[in-house]
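Translate sequence into structure tokens.
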Amino acid sequence: MKLKYERELIVEFGKKLLESGLTKGTGGNLSLYDAESGLCAISPSGIDYYEVQSQNVVLIDLEGTQVEGEGKPSSEMSMHTIFYKNRDDVRSVIHTHSPFATTLACLNWDMPAHHYIVALAGPDVRCAPYETFATEELAKAAFDYAIDRKAVFLQNHGMLACGGSVEEAFYIAEEIEFTAEVYWRSRVVGQPTVLAGEEVVKLTQKFKGYAPLTDRRSR
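Result follows.
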């Protein structure tokens, strides 16, 4: 089996998406890119995350051609491969339907740096304009609005987080969901204070290398 370790990580973190409340049912998707082989391991379409086994995880190349796997690749695969084609810092993409990030996405709100943790993903989190799911147009919108960032809201849809490992992408997805909840609650009662731009730059530098990047094969 090719990319056995990466496929096992997709199984593991698919379950974590449900356990952490970042998605429901079969919603969302996640992937890992192996630059050496040029292949991407991506969650299969329409299978409950608790039922997915490593052989169901699909391997595709960056043109979307299926190479291995018993499942059908996620319909959003182009939203993953566009990052791997164009960003050397991205090796994992996670797309969620987490409630507070999705709430802001449905309001078509950007999220400023109202909390220092936002700087994990960049100076802010922007909301990409609405495009139909599972289209090249959605993939391009997500990519364009995530430039110089590691998270983006997708209008009327959800959130996408990315990182140098699945651990980092998942960590960012969790933390941006937390900050989205704080932002929503703050807006309910008032206008949250936004950190100054120079402070956000400082925080971004401090966060470099902070997110989990561990390759557990070395343990």
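Note: Helices lie at 4-19, 77-86, 99-106, 136-145, 166-189, 197-207.
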